[in-house]
Design a protein that fits this description.
The chain is of the alpha/beta class. 41% of the residues lie in helices and 18% in strands. It has 3 domains: 25-259, 2-enoyl-CoA Hydratase, Chain A, domain 1 (Alpha-Beta Complex), CATH 3.90.226; 280-435 and 498-515, Alpha-Beta Complex (2-enoyl-CoA Hydratase, Chain A, domain 1); 440-484.
Length: 532
């Protein structure tokens, strides 16, 4: 039998401590998520509702098929910046008339839905996901365009948004824009470059320049309706393909547009799948509070894959990395999971072979991170750790099957790269609240800086300031610890969201369904030169 056995003791003290620590971290993340859900706050939400308008997430809810999930992406974008958490934009994947779509919705309660630098990064990431997975894009538009005080960070790279819309269309990936309010200046090009456009009567305002700008530029007197109203665009300019009487009607028409797209998945859904043999609730008590303490990733695998059924690959070789085959919500996956943190030469070579096999079989790969990086030291350098680590990174970089990554614990140094971190274009990357990611751990980084400073002082024949060293180390450790946390990294869109461990199977199932909308085809050769 290949069903994994579990050694986890949910009644033990160690489990209880780990579970309590994870729940505390989840509460911290929930508090930050609440900021995104609050949008611009009660004052601006009340003003929005007084105008008879729905909130961004209410629009999404009416758009989606009843009782279907919505996988929100990058909800913490902008965290730690001068801008509102969530970046005045909601993005995610949901099902409309049976079709999985990438949905974006401006939040007009935050500075009128204006785009700041983090809005741009979040929108570009959403377009990237849509393109890679061939997901139709539905844009729920109500934005005053660029947040002008930050235009220097938006204007030049912002053109990529319009480029993306045209490239999606050229690739046969449908784009639909539903305009609820202002869509001004650069924002006018969202409906202008979408395949299908729906505008709401007496609400939608689409123009390159509003009446004040037209007056300044040409001396012409105009009003919103004649210049860019929904009825004008439906009757005169032809920009609007569909004219909606109100917001619910616009969303109803958007559903009908999607229903008529004739957009088909490249791979059919696999149908019902056996649940894991172990309770997903137990995922809360697996990761230790101190990430220096190893944990067995097979305990995680046993609680997310179908039937807890897992065929290990090379289980006796390179045992710091668990590799093997499973199914998740019916979809085949190859799994790479760090067992004891450090990656040695054997693990690196094992990973490279396993990745090649997955590409031969057209099987997506799932990377479960808990790594401190590749092993250092004279013995390991002489044993070829650089070339073997490079072999693994080469395989990851040139693999063409979809990659999914979940940061469970540590994800430090080049190990983050070898396990398909953000720079290696995983289709989706999520983090648990327990995760940390940086060049190295805070204590190690502070210690390295201290050793370098000591060596410099010795070379100059100067006494070393021990008190100053202790103070510097404390400051550096505090800084690196703060910059390693998942909310900090998620705020910079280095992941697609911080998730509850108990939701891991569901989130990965939604992602696997999305990636199978596009063809899943592995690389046949083309891995570059492996240094043997």
């Amino acid at each position: 039998m290949t069903v994994l056995t579990s050694a986890l003791d949910p009644s033990g003290t160690e489990y209880a401590e780990r579970r309590a620590a994870m729940l505390a971290k989840l509460d911290e993340v929930a508090a930050e998520h609440a900021k995104a859900l609050a949008g611009g706050g009660e004052k601006y939400l009340a003003r929005h509702r007084k105008r008879g308008k729905l909130a961004a997430r209410e629009r999404i809810e009416l758009l989606l098929d009843p009782d279907t999930p919505f996988l929100e992406l990058s909800p913490l974008a902008g965290w730690g910046s001068d801008y509102a958490v969530g970046a005045s934009l909601v993005t995610g994947i949901g099902v409309i008339e049976g079709v999985e779509c990438l949905i974006t919705a401006n939040d007009p309660t935050v500075r009128g839905g204006a785009s700041n630098p983090w809005t741009l990064k979040k929108a570009l990431r959403a377009n990237e996901i849509a393109y890679a997975n061939r997901l139709p894009v539905v844009s729920l538009v109500e934005s005053g365009g660029a947040d002008l005080p930050s235009q220097k960070e938006i204007f030049i790279p912002g053109g990529a948004l319009f480029r993306d819309l045209t490239r999606l269309s050229a690739a046969g990936i449908p784009t639909v824009a539903v305009v609820f309010g202002n869509s001004t200046a650069g924002g006018a090009y969202v409906p202008g470059m979408s395949d299908h456009v729906i505008m709401v009567k007496e609400r939608a305002k689409v123009f390159l320049g509003g009446p004040p700008l037209v007056k300044m530029a040409t001396g012409e007197e105009s009003d919103d309706e004649s210049l860019g109203g929904a009825e004008m665009h439906a009757r005169t300019s032809g920009l609007a393909d569909h004219f909606a009487v109100d917001e619910p009607d616009a969303l109803r028409q958007a559903r009908r547009v999607v229903a008529r797209l004739n957009h088909r998945k490249a791979h059919p859904d696999p149908g019902p799948a056996a649940p894991p043999a172990y309770d997903e609730e137990e995922l809360l008590g697996i990761v230790p509070g101190d990430l220096k303490t190893p944990f067995d990733p097979r305990e995680v695998i046993a609680r997310i894959v179908d039937g807890s059924d897992f065929d290990a690959f090379k289980p006796l070789y390179g045992t710091s990395l668990t590799t093997g085959w499973a199914r998740l919500h019916g979809y085949p996956v190859g799994i790479l999971a760090n067992a004891r943190g450090v990656l040695f030469s054997a693990e690196s070579q094992k990973a490279a072979q396993f990745i090649q096999l997955a590409n031969q079989r057209d099987i997506p790969l799932l990377f479960l991170h808990n790594t401190t990086g590749y092993m250092v030291g004279k013995e390991y350098e002489q044993g070829g750790i650089i070339k073997h680590g490079a072999m693994m990174i080469n395989a990851v970089a040139n693999s063409r099957v979809p990659h999914l990554s979940v940061l469970m614990g540590a994800s430090y140094g080049a190990g983050h790269y070898g396990m398909c971190g953000r720079a290696y274009d995983p289709r989706f990357l999520f983090a648990w609240p327990s995760a940390k990611s940086a060049v190295m751990g805070p204590q190690q980084l502070a210690g390295v800086l201290s050793l370098v400073a000591r060596a410099s002082a010795a070379a100059k024949g100067q006494p070393y300031d021990e008190d100053g060293d202790a103070a510097l180390r404390a400051v550096v450790e505090q800084q690196i610890e703060a910059e390693s946390l998942p909310v900090f990294l998620s705020g910079r869109l280095y992941d697609d969201g911080v998730i509850d461990p108990r939701d891991t199977r569901t989130v990965l199932g939604l992602c696997l369904s999305a990636v199978h909308t596009a063809p899943v085809e592995g690389a046949r050769g083309g891995f570059g030169v492996f240094r043997m």
